Amino acid sequence: MRPLNAATACGAASSFFRADRGLSAAKAGPDDLRYRSLTHRGCNARFVGSPDYVRVAASTEQVVEAVQQAVREGRRIAVRSGGHCFENCVDDPAVRALIDLSSMTAVHYDEERRAFAVEPGASLGETYRKLFAGWGVVIPAGATAEVGVGGHILGGGYGALSRRYGVPVPVRRQRRLLRQLPRHRPRGPRPEHLRHALADPLLQAALSAYYKQHYPRLQQIKARWDPRNEFRHAMSIRLPS
């Protein structure tokens, strides 16, 4: 690798991030000096991917364009935000197109939807700082500041406030349910409306997709050690039906 002077470095940076102003995400293949850095961002060094290329997206439009191109080319896609996945979901050898979202770090309040929007590349640390400094609010997520919001939230991440407010994915639903649940629930069947609300089929489908063939075995373990389902939240393994 040749050393970079200031002019070369600025030129490389300009070339790499000029996609910020357009519809095409920056692209780095195996011959690109940035490829190794982008493919070695994973936290678990056991897994290192070797995709045909990495696309670094800085907007929703760029993500759409990158996905469409990969689909047209018949390449399997994986997405990375913070890079802290312990498994090989991103670095699987079958992945041929990696979409890196680390440049998408915006945090803002949507007036029309009356909701906060956090882009997937934002780290937990910067998300906490922006939410608290801007609006005096927080989300019940994890304690590791470098973890990316995208994978952490969709993967069912939790933190110190989760015992009270639940996990970040269904945070609005859980806050609503917390106002209905008694502090010390008596034993017996759960009220019908709460039982259905907590058994979100979309969340359970996500769990099944994540654990794959291991999910039924986890259900058996759950039935053995927690047959009354005392330890539960919206992302819990469900008892066998």
What does this molecule look like?
The protein contains ten helices and six strands, in the order αβαβαββββααααααα. With 241 residues, it is of the alpha/beta class. Strands 1-2-4-3 form a four-stranded mixed beta sheet. Strands 5-6 form a two-stranded antiparallel sheet. The termini are far apart.
Looking at this protein, list some descriptive labels.
globular, 241 residues, two-stranded antiparallel ribbon, alpha/beta, single chain, disordered N terminus
Distance between the termini: 58 Å
Low-confidence stretches: 1-19, 171-199
Average pLDDT, all residues: 76
Strand content: 5-15%
List the topology elements.
Elements: H1 6-17, E1 26-28, H2 35-39, E2 53-56, H3 60-73, E3 77-80, E4 97-100, E5 107-110, E6 115-118, H4 124-135, H5 149-154, H6 162-165, H7 171-178, H8 192-198, H9 201-211, H10 215-225
Parallel strand pairs: 2-4, 3-4
Antiparallel strand pairs: 1-2, 5-6
Short précis:
This protein has 241 residues and is an alpha/beta fold. It has ten helices and six strands, in the order αβαβαββββααααααα.
